[in-house]
Specification:
The chain folds into three domains: 2-113 and 129-322, Porin (Beta Barrel), CATH 2.40.160.40; 327-422, Immunoglobulin-like; 440-547, 60s Ribosomal Protein L30, Chain: A. It has helices at residues 2-17, 19-22, 40-44, 58-61, 451-467, 490-507, 532-538; strands at 71-80, 86-95, 101-110, 114-120, 123-130, 133-146, 149-160, 168-180, 186-196, 207-217, 230-241, 248-258, 262-271, 281-290, 293-301, 307-317, 330-335, 341-342, 353-362, 367-374, 382-383, 396-406, 411-422, 440-441, 471-478, 515-519, 540-547. It has seven helices and 27 strands.
Length: 548
């Protein structure tokens, strides 16, 4: 990881130091049209998407985020401006299994038809016309450095004939770095763009861009490991000209997706230059998704070009990590003290795991067991039905959950298994089923019992443990259907009854490691609750035997 990070930092350092050898700093700036955001989505949020990784036009914005998602994307857009100006934009991106990615694309700018005139003897006459164009063809590669870091380069071939009879071409490079904070929906980035040679006796619009983005999960679903269906992204970017120190642009933008189907966008650009520097002013936009298709629209103010209407159609296909299915938790049963539960700890996406944790929770969300580690999770991870102290957990339902963080800092929270844990029953010769003969009966609403009843239970328990010292005695508390006069629930009353018997046995010297207590309220009557006699039988504590 350190070697990759060093390589990524070297990319950016070489790009910056290239300024002194490839470009002469001057105020004579050419091809200003390169500053106009060809991406419809980026234009709608004020050109502030430099730190938003899930962008189909990353190669044009920040090549470091190429490969953020595996699979393939293709996008084509048409931009209409005032005075007959227009731009066509086409880009194809491919994510790779190791988290890297590449992209190729082209922007074609058409300035319409310009008529030439000459004045002779006070008479103005037409001398013909021409159609100036600008062409930018590019390819980029993004490198996954791990630990949330990414780096990337984009190479450009640029051609224009804006000045009649002075067609020219040149090359340029964009270099970018990107960092996603581990466990936080916050990203930052920096890009040096249009680092190259002169064109039309002028310098390219060399810029240093820094950006940040923060995601707000308004649906609250990410905490449960689901894809958010109500996501608000806030973005900001600053673009500093390295050619003209008086040219600085700042962008603020927001994007809101509802149900992952409809998006609304807004942004604003501030600048202190009077040159043709691209977007300045208010921008608005919207997007619609249908299956793997996406349609986007943006209305922006494009400096001297006037108002722009941009529309883009995109298709995502292949390994779509953005729409990964959340698997339903597997159901299984286990016999406590006999079985173990294998835990299939794997990441939904194909990106390497940087850290992981797994926990077992009760039905009420209380953690009873857990493990964590760095790097790839073990393949033989399992739970043996014991808590962190090594004691057997009570019978009941348990949920196995995992948190996995990949090398880009993306967090997945998964519910893997729902376990129904039960103690294995044993039948001893001479005993009625699995029950100890001496059960404890209670008065209505009470959790106390007589010393004689307690002594009888103690004697039975001691006899059993002498013969079978490894067995577990399970104490079950029960109530009738009448609500307690003490103002507590029948569940609480049954817990108190089971706990009272356990406390008595422990006080008399029984090892608590051999005892488990749990209440069942009025859910398991052994007689009818319609008669006083039946209700009396239901107010009880039963002792069951299980093999450890």
């Amino acid at each position: 990881m350190r070697k990759k990070l060093t390589l990524g930092l070297a990319f950016l350092l070489m790009a910056i130091t290239r300024i002194s050898t490839a470009q002469t700093v001057t105020a004579d700036e050419g091809t200003s049209w390169l500053r106009v955001p060809p991406s419809t989505r980026n234009a709608a949020v004020g050109g502030a998407l430099g730190a938003v990784p899930d962008n189909m036009d990353s190669v044009d914005i920040n090549p470091a985020t190429l490969g953020w998602y595996p699979g393939s994307e293709i996008s084509i857009s048409q931009n209409f401006w005032a005075q007959g100006l227009s731009m066509q934009h086409l880009v194809y991106s491919q994510g790779l299994a190791n988290g890297d990615g590449f992209s190729v694309g082209a922007d074609y700018l058409n300035f319409g038809t310009i008529t030439n005139y000459s004045a002779t003897g006070g008479l103005v006459t037409s001398t013909g016309s021409y159609s100036p164009i600008g062409l930018d063809v590019y390819g980029g590669y993004g490198l996954n450095l791990g630990g949330g870091w990414r780096a990337g380069l984009t190479a450009h071939f640029i051609y224009d004939n804006i000045q009649q009879n002075f067609a020219d071409k040149t090359g340029a490079i964009d270099a970018g770095l990107f960092y996603r904070f581990v466990g936080l929906p916050l990203s930052i980035s920096t890009v040096v763009s249009d680092l190259g040679f002169s064109i039309d006796n002028a310098i390219l619009p060399l810029q240093l861009k820094t950006a940040a983005a923060y995601e707000l999960d308004l649906s609250g679903q990410r905490s449960s490991g689901l894809i958010s269906t109500s996501l608000l992204t806030l973005a900001a970017e600053g673009d500093w000209s390295l050619i003209n120190i008086n040219s600085t642009i700042y962008g603020l933008g927001a994007e809101y997706w509802y149900q992952n189907l409809v998006a609304i966008r807004a942004g604003y650009r501030f600048e202190n230059s009077t040159n043709l520097t691209g977007v300045k002013g208010l921008s608005l936009g919207a997007g619609v998704r249908y299956m793997n298709w996406q349609l986007d629209y943006a209305m922006t103010t494009i400096g001297d070009f006037g108002t722009s209407n941009q529309i883009a159609l995109s298709l995502h296909f292949g390994d779509d990590a953005k729409k990964r299915a959340v698997k339903k938790a597997r159901q299984m049963a286990m016999k406590l003290h006999q079985d173990v539960v294998p835990i299939p700890l794997m990441l939904e996406s194909s990106k390497p795991v940087s850290k992981w944790s797994v926990e077992v929770d009760t039905a009420t969300g209380v953690q009873v067991w857990g493990r964590e580690g760095l790097g790839t999770p073990p393949t033989d991870l399992s739970w043996d039905g014991k808590d962190q102290s090594g004691h057997a957990v009570p019978e009941g339902s348990y949920t196995v959950k995992a948190i996995l963080v990949d090398q880009d800092g993306e967090v997945e929270k998964l519910t893997l298994i729902v376990v129904e844990a039960r103690f294995p029953e044993v039948i001893l010769p001479g005993w009625k089923n699995t029950y100890i003969a001496q059960n404890v009966d209670f008065k209505s609403g009470k959790d106390d019992f007589t010393e004689a009843e307690g002594q009888a239970v103690l004697t039975a328990v001691q006899d059993i443990l002498k013969l079978h010292p490894t067995y577990l005695i399970y104490i079950e508390g029960h109530t009738d259907s009448v609500l307690s006069l003490r103002g507590i629930s029948n569940q609480t009353l049954s817990d108190e009854r089971a706990g009272a018997v356990k406390d008595y046995l422990v006080k008399k010297g029984v090892d608590p490691a051999h005892l488990e207590a749990k209440g069942f309220g009025d859910t398991e009557p052994m007689a009818s609750n319609d008669t006083p006699e039946g209700r009396a039988q239901n107010r009880r504590v039963e002792l069951l035997l299980f093999q450890k």
